[in-house]
Write a structure and sequence with these properties.
This protein is an alpha/beta fold. It has 7 helices and 9 strands; from the N terminus they run βαββαβαβααββαβαβ. Helix 2 runs parallel beside helix 3 and helix 3 runs parallel beside helix 5. The mean pLDDT is about 95.
Length: about 220
């Protein structure tokens, strides 16, 4: 049985990914924060919930090294903040980097090293349109800067893994159709957004049937 690790497993996207891979008979380990306010009660013998502090590099490395093999890692943890240049202090930038980049790097690094030893594996990191193109980041400076690092990380990982079966892909969604987004944007048309289940299905496809496709950036915009 293949193994998939999902960080931020209690989030909307995290839960969709967990459900998809469990339905496809993967063994899934979902990481959550301590005292997570969002319940994650999944009744499946192939699922394990693990409390993990992604800001603690040593703890993360130990956790990854305890796993026998990791076939897929889906890194969904992140945070968002608005703010133009004049409103964005250096502390705001550092906070967004900690939330969006450091949490990804802390686990992507040991996962990558394990996959290189295994000679195969797929890493998926959730990016964003503001991180991909600065023109989409107006009014969200710290978030845009932090997310841009995700794309550079994927480039560096893929360059180092060239010639192997270890591939890192950044998923770039438009607005994800979630209850929270529907509530905060009541006048928007959610039919133009992308569903978490659709993102999960794409991740699964590129992990299995589509693994020969080495696409470093997957844009999932629907009609947004």
């Amino acid at each position: 049985m293949k193994t998939c690790i999902v960080t931020g497993a209690s989030g909307n996207l995290g839960q969709a990914v967990v459900e998809k891979f469990l339905n496809e008979e993967f063994s899934v380990i979902g990481t959550v924060i301590e005292n997570d306010p969002i319940p994650l009660n999944i009744d499946n013998s192939n699922f394990k919930k693990h409390v993990l502090d992604l800001s603690n590099e040593k703890t993360v490395e130990d956790f990854i090294n305890q796993q026998k093999e990791i076939d897929v890692a889906v890194l969904t943890v992140g945070g968002f903040a608005m703010g133009k240049i004049g409103e964005t202090k250096l502390a705001d930038v550092k906070k967004q980097i900690a939330l969006n980049f450091e949490t990804a790097y802390a686990i992507a690094r040991p996962v990558f090293m394990k996959m290189m030893d295994q000679k195969q594996g797929r890493i998926f990191i959730i990016g964003s349109k503001p991180g991909l193109e600065a023109r989409f980041g107006k009014g969200m400076v710290a978030y845009s800067l932090a997310k841009s690092l995700i794309f550079r990380l994927a480039e560096l990982l893929n360059d180092e893994a060239k010639g192997t079966n270890v591939v890192t892909t950044v998923i770039v969604p438009s607005t994800i159709d979630t209850p929270q987004n529907r509530k905060s944007m009541p006048d928007a048309d959610p039919n133009k957004w992308v569903k978490a289940e659709e993102i999960a299905a794409a991740i699964y496809y590129y992990s299995t049937e589509g693994k020969v496709i080495r696409e470093p950036v997957l844009k999932m915009y629907n009609n947004s």
